[in-house]
């Protein structure tokens, strides 16, 4: 297929048959996709900031608030006027949060594996890649991986100051084992 496009008044061909023009078009696509880097190594393009994955630091989650090995990557921190933070959280098999609640709602977007979220006094709900859980403010809950599988989600929380999350006791091991088996299907 021989494809042509006009970009900024320049006729470009997106076919190897056009030689130099195709190379210019490829360079334009790369430049448009990344833009110039700022001093922090981020890409800014039309007021959009792209933070490359290679620039993030993965940190262990605080052991006082989690059971098992849990890793966190901060994706976005609140920058006025926004109050939203986003964190990629990866749970090793059997890892989970303590019981906790937030002053504002929490949105969990499952990205890998099978995990669960459980509200105190209710049965657990399964989370698979692509599922979204919305936890209202003040609801005591926990979330994490099922036994035998990695699980990852992105947590979105609107912060209401530094103490937005109240951490409670760990989920009892017997309670976790009774519910953390892979769902059928």
Alpha-carbon distance between the termini? 42 Å
User: In this structure, how is the largest beta sheet organized?
Assistant: 8 strands, antiparallel
Helix and strand content put the structural class at: mainly beta
Beta-strand percentage? Answer: 35-45%
Question: Which word captures the global form?
Answer: globular
What is Rg?
22 Å
Contiguous helical run count? 2
**Overall residue-averaged pLDDT value:** 81
Secondary-structure element pattern, one letter each: EEHEEEEEEEEEEEEEEH
By CATH, the superfamily of the largest domain comes out as Jelly Rolls
**Judging by the overall fold, what is the CATH architecture of the largest domain?**
Sandwich
CATH topology category name of the largest domain: Jelly Rolls
Determine and state the CATH class of the largest domain: Mainly Beta
Number of strands: 16
Percentage of residues assigned to helices: 10-25%
Give the number of domains. Answer: 2
Q: Identify low-pLDDT runs.
A: 1-16, 19-34
